[in-house]
Amino acid sequence: MDRSVVTLDRHIVEQERRHPGATGAFSSILQDLALAGKLINRQVRKAGLVDILGQTGRQNVHGEEVQKLDEFAHDVVFRAMDHGGHLCVMASEEQEDPLPIPEEFPTGDYALLFDPLDGSSNIDVNISIGTIFSIHERVSQGRDGTRDDLVQPGHRQEAAGYILYGSSTILVYTTGNGVHGFTLDPSIGEFLLSHRDIRIPDPGDRVYSVNEGHADKWSEDQRGLVEHLKTGRERDGGGFSARYVGSLVADFHRTLMNGGLFMYPGNRANPEGKLRLLYEAAPMAMICEEAGGRASDGERDILSLNPQNLHQRTPLYIGSSDHVELAEERLAAG
Length: 334
Ligand code: AHG
Ligand code: MN
Ligand code: MN
Description:
The chain is of the alpha+beta class. It has two domains: 8-195, Fructose-1,6-Bisphosphatase, Chain A, domain 1 (2-Layer Sandwich), CATH 3.30.540; 207-333, D-Maltodextrin-Binding Protein, domain 2, CATH 3.40.190.80. Helices cover 32% and strands 21% of the residues.
């Protein structure tokens, strides 16, 4: 049993040694993201207090504007990442347009996309929420990056990861050399390696995760798929149990740890579903596939999709390979 204490920083140095192609640039990007995660974690852990303090008007005891946690998280990520000199442009779920690097800072070869706070509907009820990030190598020239650096297919991602503010705070990332998890030790403010080389269990748990409240808007095939998962005999691929948190980061992390099938289908009202391709589905797809699972839009690999715009949505079926394949088969059966 490896009992050594490996910090995120030490792990990154070890990875750099093992993969000479890995430049120091990516390592400092990840360290800056970890800092942002610690700052957001601190606010998340006292969100209830801030709310109470915030209810006495728009000021808290420090005279600070009480910001909605996702606006706060957006600001924290942007400010942690804007001066490192390794990014040429950023994009956030919270902002319609690409975010240029402020003039006073140098720019670099990577583009960062992020969902600063995923699961916003769960903030005020103390349910797990998260931050998701995706990193691409730039394709444009010149100081400032462009939309082209951000709107790239998932298979070109250099790295992807998330921070889950759950019963503990865990940072999970991949650069294509395995998926690794680091749990925050708040007493020393360090992310410590807790899950080396995560592999999604296969066969994974027979657990499906979908918001059945939207079932009336689903296609017949989608309804048939969920019915089969629930009532089909185990040997026919049925006999599933259900879990649904409503925060993608939490539902995905459970699926990565235990196996299972997470679905956010399209429906009559929203044929492309609700989840965003570039900073929700694609990073989770890179992580899941690197861990031995699969991610599909119901018929095509998420990582193979060619995006057209920054905030485009996609249906998502992600988790244990055999469960995703079962879903694709039944959706194709028609
Ligand atoms: P966000 O808070 O970043 O907008 O993301 C919320 C997403 C995702 O976290 C979750 O899987 C999904 O919304 C839940 O949607 P429903 O409430 O429609 O199930
Ligand atoms: Mn989200
Ligand atoms: Mn969000």
